[in-house]
Model the fold of this input.
Amino acid sequence: MINISGVSPNDDFLQIIKLIYLTDDYIYPEMCGNDYEYFEELMLYLLNTDSIFSHKNISLAKFDGKIIGLALAFTNNQKIPSFSQDIKFEVRDCYKMVMDIYFNKILDELQPDFVYVNNLIVDHENRKSGVGYALIRYVQKIAGKKKIVLDCLEDNASAIALYKKCGFIVTDKFEGFSGDADSPVLCLRLETMGNDNC
Done:
């Protein structure tokens, strides 16, 4: 049976980080300069901050205790991560650039009382088994009456079908972040209400 819950201190943070990285072919590789070890170190820190990347914003899907999927969702009253003076790693320019160009833009555009689903992923072995549906339903339950917003690549037909099944409608089409101004990606913005048709 699939169990959906928040993150606990005993959860496998390295698996959580791996799934976050795999949710987007553009944002996270660009954020760490294609250096996965740096991404891991960065995210181990960020998951424990009071920011959009806080582990408190993550919902996990587990099967037999193993993490098989996650959703990361935040509101506009949360912030870009900041760093304490005692961090043991360099905050690279690639990280700062993605925060400035991508995440700050999301927070600036996010209306009060909206919930933004930044990441939704199910591992390859468990796709098409209802895990993504269960994660969206859980986010909708947590959101209550707040509007839920997410962005999706236009060519990701299976994800779009799932979101539409859960009551999302397409509200915009735009050029998304690809890390390469000469090769933009086309994205759709989708919206629904919490506790909607899912």
Notes: The chain is about 35% helix and 25% strand. The chain has one domain: 2-76+93-193.
